[in-house]
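User: tokens in, sequence out, please.
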């Protein structure tokens, strides 16, 4: 019986996920596995994080084992347990750039890179360049399990146990029946100093969302990450045909949000989250 493309993708992505177990541990990097497979279903190369040195990434480690002129690359698929990086401090080029330079036509991955070290948009960059990008969420829990230093420890309350999907859904909907139970009665939303726009209670926050939605404002949560007793959300705010990107941080104590901050830059959001 002929194997379907979907079944082939699952089989090879599982191979990539399994390779992450070989990664030397690092508290400041992900454990990732990658496999490159040609159009005929033949494995061309594999790689995993820190395979040859402390900075090498999985996709990079696999690609460097192949001749750049290999005519199988345009029809090949890169399988990676994590979204290929688009921002990188340890090398001149990101894995997304390396994949594009190699001419690979297809990428399959399991988990979007969370907002831990950088803000990654590798999937978007690849798709914009004409690469077919497939995400298989069914492997995401295995990727999290391979990275316990990032995902393994729940913080303070039950709200942030896992990916904080309940908070993301509530923020997107603005529904008081979903969001209200997650907020402390005296939750504060604002900056260091009080202004006319600062919210000081659950009711203030819910009224803000109600007014915003009535005025046509919509919020989409692209990614969430938990750290130091806080949930960091990458949000897109759309109103009047205009879109803005923000990072909202929800401080959680005993399972309830007690404070909310908004920042235009990820580094500032993470810095406040890490203050604990």
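Assistant: Sequence out:
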């Amino acid at each position: 019986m002929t194997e379907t493309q979907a079944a082939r993708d699952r089989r090879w992505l599982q191979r990539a996920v399994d390779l992450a177990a070989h990664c030397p541990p690092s508290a400041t990097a992900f454990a990732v596995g990658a496999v490159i497979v040609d159009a005929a279903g033949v494995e061309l190369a594999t790689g995993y994080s820190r395979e040859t040195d402390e900075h090498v990434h999985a996709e990079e480690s696999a690609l460097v084992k192949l001749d750049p002129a290999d005519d199988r690359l345009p029809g090949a698929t890169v399988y990676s347990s994590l979204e290929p990086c688009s921002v990188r401090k340890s090398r001149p080029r990101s894995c997304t750039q390396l994949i594009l330079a190699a001419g690979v036509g297809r990428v399959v991955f399991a988990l979007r890179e969370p907002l831990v070290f950088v803000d990654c948009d590798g999937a978007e960059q690849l798709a914009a360049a004409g690469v077919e990008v497939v995400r298989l969420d069914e492997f995401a829990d295995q990727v999290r399990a391979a990275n316990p230093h990032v995902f393994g420890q729940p913080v303070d309350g039950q709200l942030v146990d896992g990916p904080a999907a309940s908070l993301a859904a509530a923020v997107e909907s603005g529904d008081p029946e979903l969001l209200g139970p997650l907020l402390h009665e005296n939750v504060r939303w604002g900056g260091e100093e009080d202004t006319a726009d600062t919210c000081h209670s659950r009711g203030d926050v819910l009224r803000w969302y109600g007014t915003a939605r009535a005025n046509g404002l919509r919020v989409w949560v692209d990614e969430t990450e938990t750290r130091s007793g806080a949930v960091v959300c990458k949000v897109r705010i759309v109103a009047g045909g205009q879109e803005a990107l923000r990072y909202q941080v929800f401080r959680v104590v005993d399972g309830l949000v007690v404070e909310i901050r908004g920042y235009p830059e990820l580094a500032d959001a993470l810095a406040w989250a890490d203050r604990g």
